[in-house]
Every structure is written in structure tokens, then in C-alpha cells.
Amino acid sequence: MIRTAVPEDVPTILRLVRELAEYERAAHEVHATEGDLRSALFGPEPRVSAHVAEHEGQVVGFALWFLSFSTWLGRHGIYLEDLYVSPQARGHGYGRRLLAELAKIADERGYGRVEWSVLDWNSPAIGFYKALGALPQDEWTVYRLTGEALTRLARS
After folding, report:
1. Contact indicator for 48, 98 with CB cutoff of 8 Å
2. What is the CATH architecture of 2-154?
3. Residues in domain N-acetyltransferase (predicted)?
4. Whole-angstrom Cα distance, residue 90 to residue 95?
């Protein structure tokens, strides 16, 4: 079952975020707390959304996303920040169903795209995405401003 996340899901979503970070070899980079996620998802001005996949009443996966905007299309889109299904629940269609739910939302609301990033070494995920019809955007390179560089620029 795929459903919209509720506040009671926050501890499980954070646990799954940490599992994802471990898989991506970046567990040391997770600084988010339950309070951070609760505020972002359910605070007075939520800016992100999440859907969860349940198996026998247990959350086994999630998709966390927010709105983007394409000036070229002149429409919003969905940016999928994280998609993760626990290893023991993989192969049962939960990832596909989570993405299908986002595609349905985009379609119903007239959004122009659903997009995300994937690590170049994550061949299982790349194969999964390609099987769904997703295409890599190889001509684009992601840049990130964070930490000291972000602070330095902000204060200049």
C-alpha cells in the first residue's frame, strides 16, 4: 500500500533516510533529526511531501519530494529528493508504486516532469529507472554550495 506520510511516520522515515545514507556510503552526512523532518513535512508551512510504502502494516519505503519549476515549460514539476525501499522489501514493486504515485500527482496537477538524481555507481537504481522509461540528463552537472562556501558567499 502507498499512502501519504503522517506525523507518526517521521521516526521510521528518518531511520530509512539513515539506511539510504549507509547504502550511498554517506552515513556521516546525515544530520537531520526527527524534529527537522517533522517541521519540514508537517510544520506550519510545509515545503516537502512524503509518501510511504507499507507491507503488512510496516513502512518499508518512502519517497520524499518537493515542487520544482521549469521556466522552459512554464510549469511546476516534482523533484524527488529520496526514494528508498528497505532491502528485505525490494523486488515487490514498492519503488515502482511510489514513483507511479508521484507520476499520478504530476499528471493530475498538470506538472511537467518528475526528476531526481542518482549516483553514477548505483547501477541497480539506474537499471530500475531506465526500465520505467526515465532518461539520464547527461549534459547537466549538479553543483552544490554548502558549508563554509555557502556561509562565505552569504556574508560577502
Report:
1. no
2. 3-Layer(aba) Sandwich (3.40)
3. 1-156
4. 8
Angle between helices 10-23 and 34-42 (to 10 degrees): 110
Task: Determine if the pTM surpasses 0.85.
Answer: yes
The helix (run of H) or strand (run of E) holding residue 14 is helix 10-23
pLDDT in tens, 26-42: 999 999 999 999 999 99
32, 125, 108, 74 alpha-carbon torsion, rounded to 10°:
80
Residues whose CB falls within 8 Å of the CB of residue 14, separated by 6 or more in sequence, listed in order:
32, 33, 34, 37
pLDDT of residue 28: 96
In the chain, where the domains are located? 2-154
Q: How far apart are CA 147 and CA 117, in angstroms?
A: 21
CB-based contact 114:80 (threshold 8 Å): yes
CA-CA-CA-CA torsion for 103, 29, 17, 138, nearest 10 degrees?
20
Q: What is the pLDDT of residues 137-147, one digit of tens each?
A: 989 988 999 99
Q: Write the DSSP assignment of 76-137 as a string of letters.
A: EEEEEEEEEE-GGGTTSSHHHHHHHHHHHHHHHHT---EEE---TT-HHHHHHHHHTT----
Q: What is the set of active-site residues?
A: 129
